[in-house]
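Notes taken during the Thursday session

The instructor put the following on the board and asked us to keep it in front of us for the whole hour. The protein is Proline--tRNA ligase. We were told not to look anything up and to reason only from what is written here. First, the residues (568 in total):
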Amino acid sequence: MRQGDMLLPTLRETPADAEIKSHQLLVRAGYIRKNASGIYSFLPIGNKVLRKVEAIVREEMENAGAMEMNMPALQPSELWKETGRWYTFGPELMRIHDRHEREFALGATHEEVITSIIRDEVKSYKQLPLSLYQIQTKFRDEKRPRFGLLRGREFLMKDAYTFHDSYESLDEHYEKMYTAYSNIFTRLGLNFRAVIADSGAMGGKDTHEFMVLSDIGEDTIAYSDTSSYAANIEMAPVTATYERSNETPLDKEKVATPNCKTMEDVSVFLGHELDQGIKSIMFKVDEKLVLVVARGDHEINDIKLKNLYDGAMVELAREEEVRKAMGAGFGSLGPINVPSSVEIVADHAVQALSNVTCGANEDGYHYKNVTPGKDFEVATYADLRFIQEGDPSPDGKGTIQFAKGIEVGHVFKLGEFYADKMNASYLDENGKSKTMLMGCYGIGVSRTLASIVEQYHDENGITWPKQVAPFHVHLLALNMKKEEQKELAERLYDKFKQAGIEVLFDDRKERAGVKFADSDLIGIPLRVTVGKQAGEGYVEFKLRATGEQTDVHEDDVVAHVTSWLNQN
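Then, after some discussion, the predicted structure tokens were revealed:
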């Protein structure tokens, strides 16, 4: 491809709304352009990278036995209402009406659609298992689109679905997909971890996320410092044990705590450490009010609360709901004299406390010298807090450390979650009707592209790994007005094409400095520069990632590039 003929607009300045490197560099290097908040076009060079990522995904999906298909982005609301997700998925689901006022969703995911297809077409156990996938645009109405391709309202996703007549078959295909995902992200050159995760609105229980390690990641990974254990911080169980205090319980005392709205405010005002206080937060779990109690230095984990109740929806109670039920606002809530309509649950650490502070359920007041079991009762003690760095690893090996990660893939064992709700059944070998079992497996393809840039860049631009680079070679003729440079560059361009080497030929009549800067910014892994030594038939080879340079004669150029391409 000749650069002079290509739509490849590079920018010297960083876009004002680009907060992270991948967003900045993909825009500056001419890979993407913003059309609206969270919506991007892939320009020709960006589309080439996207297709290479897709190709690796396709190869590994087919190696795992999955068959590609294509489903509609426009989905009837009736399917989503069958599973109940029309009401529970949340505002991220884009809903529209046609001219007849019929409701549709723009596909955020395709569990309902694929299940409806399989229930109509598969009737016998002899047709199972099935493994199907697609690569298609998805839509989610993000409240705050940000970070370029990492959190958009329209994005490219690979989603796969498997259908089974036994859990053994589901487990087998789950492992195949887990392996395929590991292969995909390894082939893409990414530093990643597979972590235990929550299924969220997808349903199901067993699930892993594939996280690309990055300081700008919005997810926190809890991992052992001595073993392979890794989990999303939301899912990491706390196995710490707590010794009950030997202090003699004192009589509780109400004290004024003006303008104290947080545990930090209270601890400073009363002069004690955070772990000598109790925090109480009101949640709604499927419309039921629940007061969750935790030690003052711990953070309550709403995912664990949701799992404790096996709830469909967990959210913080509204201010008016809290005041109506408790007679006080958020900053003064506590577990004493709680109405019977509100259930109290507490994290395990609370059970070991004595003589601590808590809200008095009266604005501007707290109790001192409060002891669980004496001053209040708890319906259920459970693991309800986020794990912390330094806590014991749940696998019993080492202690927990944190890292940031970008979620690029997610695999789920859905079980009967969708098939049961949508009556997807089959006849077994005895002619008995049974509900199918399902698995679901997603990769954010466009998000993965951005994640590669987050790990492969330097101060001058992108440093693509060769397996996904838009071209293998960036051929630069520094002065197209000089005949010997132009002729040598043209000969090399023809040789590269004949050898099947992907090449971008910068034939523009630009200054050498502009060409070098653009080449570094675009990030093609091997640069071949035709310059002052063109008369002797020599060119300069430079590896973009390392800066390593060498002079090579025209006769050896193709062999040199081919040798480099064949290296692991």
